[in-house]
Specification:
The structure holds 2 protein chains of 2 kinds.
Chain A: E1 5-7, E2 10-13, E3 19-24, E4 31-38, E5 42-50, E6 53-56, E7 65-71, E8 74-79, E9 88-95, E10 104-105, E11 109-113
Parallel strand pairs in A: 2-11
Antiparallel strand pairs in A: 1-3, 3-8, 4-5, 4-9, 5-6, 7-8, 9-10, 9-11
Chain B: E1 3-6, E2 11-14, E3 19-21, E4 23-26, E5 32-38, E6 45-50, E7 56-59, E8 62-65, E9 75-77, E10 86-93, E11 105-106, E12 110-115
Parallel strand pairs in B: 2-12
Antiparallel strand pairs in B: 1-4, 3-9, 5-6, 5-10, 7-8, 8-9, 10-11, 10-12
The chains are: A mainly beta, B mainly beta.
């Protein structure tokens, strides 16, 4: 079975650019999560979808970060405009809809903003 | 709010020695607790989870007991191997009926390096 797929694996952007990261969840999973991972903060939740409905949008990340789920098998995370402090690994995860279900993570996209 | 605090890394051990990574949590709800492990170049993966207080979870020689009184969930392994080198994350899922049932709150992670 295919796991969570993320593209691209690496992205380099200039400050002020718009970038779009993509995620394909595990087939049949209804919950989808976007996280930002840094050495200092660890894993921070950006967005949480259940059956394509946005359940949580990560508060502090609202202004320049927008996640969308157009269908059950594809999600995007747009960062607009990018800033150097956005340099991090962005992880996508999915899970079955069930209480305390295991989250399956993709390999992540490493974003560098110059 | 909900939070998780764990041992700051990096932790460096020799093969065959014992490991303890401390994890403490705060929540006003009734959480399920998790340990995730992340190997280089990969996303985190579930090591094990424990949904009930005073129960123990284990996998691959790692174990942790959900101590409700102490609000702790320390990760232990009696004898580490070089292949255990990874980042370990403690996490909690607050028992929140409705939309946040699968939301996880992660600690900042502990980098473990095991030397041969």
């Amino acid at each position: 079975d295919a796991g969570v797929t993320q593209t691209p694996r690496h992205e380099v952007a200039e400050k002020g650019q718009t970038i779009i990261l993509k995620c394909e969840p595990v087939s049949g999973h209804n919950d989808l999560f976007w996280y930002r991972q840094t050495k200092i903060q660890g894993l921070e939740l950006l967005s949480y979808f259940r059956s394509k409905s946005l359940m949580e949008d990560g508060g502090a990340f609202k202004d320049r970060f927008k996640a969308e789920m157009l269908n059950s098998s594809f999600s995007t995370l747009k960062i607009q405009p990018t800033e150097p402090k956005d340099s991090a690994v962005y992880l996508c995860a999915s899970s079955l809809t069930g209480v305390y279900a295991e989250q399956f993570f993709g390999p992540g996209t490493r974003l560098t903003v110059l | 709010g909900d939070s998780v605090t764990q041992t700051e890394g990096p932790v460096t051990l020799s093969e065959g020695t014992s490991l303890t990574v401390n994890c403490s949590y705060e929540t006003k709800q009734y959480p399920t607790l998790f340990w995730y492990v992340q190997y280089p170049g990969e996303g985190p993966q579930l090591l094990f989870k424990v949904p009930k207080a005073n129960e123990k979870g284990s996998n691959r020689g790692f174990e942790a007991t959900y101590n409700k009184e102490a609000t702790s969930f320390h990760l232990q392994k009696a004898s580490v191997q070089e292949s255990d080198s990874a980042v370990y994350y403690c996490a909690l899922a607050p028992m929140n009926y409705g939309g946040s049932g699968n939301k996880l709150i992660f600690g900042t992670g502990t980098l473990l390096s095991v030397k041969p």
